[in-house]
């Protein structure tokens, strides 16, 4: 298994180098709708397995397997990242080669243990299953890339020369990987706002997916598709919004889950530091592994929380604009009698409050199911913080 870890670390370093090259050349492009289904399934599973390895490594810091588990956790977490972020052809090819080689090595290792009569641990079985899912993801991404190349060939020469729609530079749409990760794409706007009061022309235009026209079109298409075969329209708006934005909901749920797990892991990390400080002989490698684990945990907690907030507010804005635009479009088709009963301003005020509350719904939804992590943390710590404070 040490050979597999060494190969994974080598491929990991090459993949990170390709990401740095993509970030420097600003070639990163990512949309949640472009993520294939095998990658969408494998990415959260790899992240969860990596976090589980971090936990096991933290609990077994006294044994020599603690550092090995930390390394495996880091590999699985970054494998999860590679399933989502492939900004260039080079990074995509390296990621697919990494998935395939990892699947081959883990399969060979597992078969060797089975043939020799040794038992497979639960972690080995989970790693084997996820490696096979990585292989399926590599095959699916390879086929999808070949299909996209074949369908996109020869399309640019047929575009009209004078068409300018959709060619405006958009700050968020043109941001690179690290810019989106750390929200540095807002730096230019913040610097401008610090130097002078902002005008309407200083605000960059919305991304194409965030515009009210696109949100309304998607909503109405799904509305008509679901309304035709159904006699009852009970909760139809809720189901239509869920169908239109299910990928964004799952993505923000993943951010919330990462933040919740890293937040709940704080007592475990505290216990590991206390147990390490009580040891008569302190190993330098174990101490460095604990520090690295703490830094990774806090980075994951901070970034996932900020992306959870941003993704929830952005998704709520899409839902709110879709409903407001759909109601306004319906209002234009009202009869004279209907307009006599309720003016345009009254109808807009009727829907504005409910639409605003619906825009806040994604944030409070994820906050609600992540709240038990606070209770778990308090149960794990008990009254130790209060006791230390009183002493």
UniProtKB/TrEMBL annotation:
Coiled coil: none annotated. Keywords: ATP-binding, Membrane, Nucleotide-binding, Transmembrane, Transmembrane helix, Transport. SUPFAM superfamilies: ABC transporter transmembrane region (SSF90123). Residues 250-361 form the ABC transmembrane type-1 domain. PROSITE patterns: ABC_TM1F (PS50929). Gene3D superfamilies: ABC transporter type 1, transmembrane domain. The chain crosses the membrane at residues 6-25, 37-57, 69-85, 92-111, 123-142. InterPro entries: ABC1_TM_dom, ABC1_TM_sf, ABC_transporter_C-like. GO terms for cellular component: membrane. GO terms for molecular function: ABC-type transporter activity; ATP binding. This is ABC transmembrane type-1 domain-containing protein. It comes from Lolium multiflorum.
């Amino acid at each position: 298994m040490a050979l597999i870890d060494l190969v994974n670390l080598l491929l990991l370093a090459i993949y990170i180098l390709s990401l740095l090259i993509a970030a420097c050349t600003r070639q990163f492009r990512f949309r949640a709708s472009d993520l294939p289904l095998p990658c969408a399934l494998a990415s959260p599973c790899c992240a969860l397995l990596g976090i589980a390895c971090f936990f096991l490594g933290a609990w077994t810091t006294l044994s020599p397997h603690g550092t090995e588990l930390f390394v495996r956790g880091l590999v699985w977490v970054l494998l999860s990242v590679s399933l989502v972020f492939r900004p260039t052809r080079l990074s995509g090819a390296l990621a697919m080669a990494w998935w395939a080689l990892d699947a081959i090595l883990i399969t060979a290792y597992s078969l060797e243990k089975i043939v020799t009569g040794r038992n497979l641990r639960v972690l080995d079985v989970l790693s084997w299953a996820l490696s096979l899912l990585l292989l399926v993801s590599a095959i699916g991404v390879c086929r999808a890339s070949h299909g996209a190349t074949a369908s996109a060939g020869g399309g640019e020469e047929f575009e009209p020369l004078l068409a300018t729609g959709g060619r405006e530079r958009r700050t968020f749409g043109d941001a690179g990987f690290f810019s989106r990760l750390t929200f540095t794409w807002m730096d230019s706007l913040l610097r401008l706002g610090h130097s002078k009061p902002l005008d309407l022309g200083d605000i960059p235009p919305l991304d194409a997916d965030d515009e009210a026209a696109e949100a309304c079109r998607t909503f109405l298409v799904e509305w008509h598709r679901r309304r035709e075969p159904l006699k009852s329209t009970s909760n139809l708006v809720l189901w239509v919004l869920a169908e239109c934005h299910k990928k964004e909901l799952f993505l923000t749920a993943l951010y919330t889950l990462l933040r919740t797990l890293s937040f709940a892991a704080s007592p475990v990390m505290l216990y590991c530091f206390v147990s390490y400080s009580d040891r008569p002989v302190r190993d330098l490698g174990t101490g460095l592994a604990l520090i690295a684990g703490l830094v990774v945990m806090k980075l994951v907690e901070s970034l996932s929380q900020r992306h959870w907030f941003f993704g929830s507010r952005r998704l709520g804005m899409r839902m709110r604009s879709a409903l407001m635009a759909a109601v306004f479009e319906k209002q234009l088709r009202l009869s004279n009698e209907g307009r006599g009963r309720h003016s345009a301003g009254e109808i807009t005020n009727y829907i504005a409050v409910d639409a605003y509350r619906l825009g806040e719904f994604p944030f409070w939804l994820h906050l609600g199911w992540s709240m038990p992590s606070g209770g778990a943390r308090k149960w794990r710590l008990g009254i130790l913080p209060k006791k230390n404070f009183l002493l």
